[in-house]
Amino acid sequence: MTAEAADLVAWRRHLHTIPELGFAEHETAAFVAARLAEMGWSVAAGVGGTGVVGTLQAGRAPRNGGPRAIALRADMDALPIAEAVARPHASRHAGRMHACGHDGHMAMLLGAARDLATRPDFHGTVHLIFQPAEEHGRGAAAMLADGLLERFLFDEVYGLHNMPGLPFGRFATRPGGLMAAEDNFEIVVEGVGTHAARPHMGLDPLVVGAEIVLALQGIVARRLDPVAQAVVSVTEFLTDGQRNVLPGRVTLRGDTRSFDPAVSAMIEARMAAIAAGLCQAHGAGHRFLYTGEFRPTVNSAAQTAWALDAARAVAGAEGAEGDCAPVLASEDFGAFLERVPGNFMFLGSGLAGEPGGVPLHNAAYDFQDGLLPLGAAYFATLARQRLAG
């Protein structure tokens, strides 16, 4: 292992020991900012709460019609999961761990930062965005609201995420929809509670709630064009009843995924109509809430082609796939792509049964350190290619 690669591992493992939740990444942000400053990057801290932006300018103004500035992004927050495997670099914060690889994403971007600062053979400006609060879809919006685009001008933005289930070291992306929007919903059914032996004395919201759960499944099955993609999932069914008490209230909560804002709007409208119609039919009251949590991650065609060029320069012609299947998981990066053209890339960490095949958000997960030089080289190569002058 080279000294440079050893540094990446040391950085990643240190970050793994200090996991912090969204908008509380104080120690994490301080570590990132200190490393960037040591490398000679201009550093802005506290962007969007705990976000960090590093800036490096080099060369002359680009002359080939390419971008004047690009942004490269890594996420910083951890998850409220207790780490299940004892490791020398295990989490020191009880009930929190880097179970999604954000420690690795930060280390890769720091590696690219060192590479670019050591050899600034590009023409233009590189901004490195270390984003807070990705896991619950709030960090990108917070940085944008704090003037990210006005304070740090850039023409393109790129991100990367490790991906268990893909072969180790394989890059994969696609133009268009790569990751889905996530919306959340809550339906409260108001009935009249009563003794379980005397249901006629009340109005049972359990029956109404059960009918709503079944009816919601017809939205995707019968109201959505089969060519489109969406998921509607009821994930919670909560009541205030007891063993011998029929409840007075039922709360249904869940999650929907889609790639097209028009599909999201259709799902919301159908949910509202189903809840209102079934509750009215039974004489029950209801409340309906539908919120957008993540925007869809939609890659720009041109930027995807350029990202693939960089990935193939690092991993070889066969090491990058340009038409991978979209996934219905969500990613906060989509908020940036709504404002600036760019690309989001997957980097395979291993197939099922391999060490890197442990699923994301699993208590036994650990980022695969062998990916660190690949990711760092990808980001640095992408910056140099896009700012070649």
UniProtKB/TrEMBL annotation:
Biological processes annotated in GO: diaminopimelate biosynthetic process
Keywords from the UniProt entry: Hydrolase, Manganese, Metal-binding
InterPro entries, alphabetized: Amidohydrolase, Bact_exopeptidase_dim_dom, Peptidase_M20, Peptidase_M20_dimer
GO molecular function annotation: metal ion binding; N-acetyldiaminopimelate deacetylase activity
Cofactor note: The Mn(2+) ion enhances activity.
Binding site for Mn(2+): 100, 102, 135, 161, 361
Domain of life per record: Bacteria
Cofactor(s) needed: Mn(2+)
Coiled-coil segments: none
Domain Peptidase M20 dimerisation: 185-275
Entry-linked NCBIfam families: amidohydrolases
Protein name: Amidohydrolase
Species annotation: Teichococcus aestuarii
